[in-house]
Amino acid sequence: MPKAPQRSRPKNIKQAGNNKSDKNTGGTSQLRIIGGQWRSRKLQFTSAEGLRPTGDRIRETLFNWLAAEIPGAHCLDLFAGSGALGIEALSRGAASCDFVELNHEAAAQIRQHLSTLNAEHGQVFCQTAKTYLENSQKHYDIIFLDPPFNKEHIDEIKSVLNTLINKDGLIYLEHAKNEEISLPENWTAEKQKTTGEVVYSTWRITC
User: Fold this and answer.
1) How does pLDDT run across 69-117, given as a tens digit for each residue?
2) Calpha distance 49→106 (Å, rounded)
3) 22 near 55, Cβ under 8 Å?
4) What is the CATH code of the structural domain delimited by 6-205?
5) CA 132, 136, 141, 145: dihedral to nearest 10 degrees?
6) Three-state SS for 62?
């Protein structure tokens, strides 16, 4: 098994076999697109329990990491929430992005944002991430994985993710600093950073 560089191994993540600047005002929040064709566009969405959009600083760092990967990529935004990650990917040239979000209101807002932006290559699926993964026949180059913290969602879906990600594809993972996560052996860490209580990292899927 290829070993990830020590500098890239986030704390509290172990591999199997290896024993926001978003504004919130009242009940609404504002999401700003950082770069690409819709740069600086602002989108409003209604706050919901557990909805935690990835902030500007983290998104900017992430998409700097992915600058060479995004153009032409087929992406999946699981636990999409506000849709911030998938919309940013489309803005920066991704060929397509599927958004999976269980909350009906949040899913409807993502559809509205895609319509507002005339984004023709985004689709929204209102269902659980596990249900989507088990039934989808699609394959992806990049998967954004930003579930509600400390809910064990990653353990529920990590094995299924391997069947949908293309070889040498990338998975972006965001989790709480105090959250211990076990990942499959074929996930090789590439980048990682901690901002406040959030750890975010990218993982190359080797087979």
Assistant:
1) 999 999 999 999 999 999 999 999 999 999 999 999 999 999 999 999 9
2) 11
3) yes
4) 3.40.50.150
5) 10
6) helix
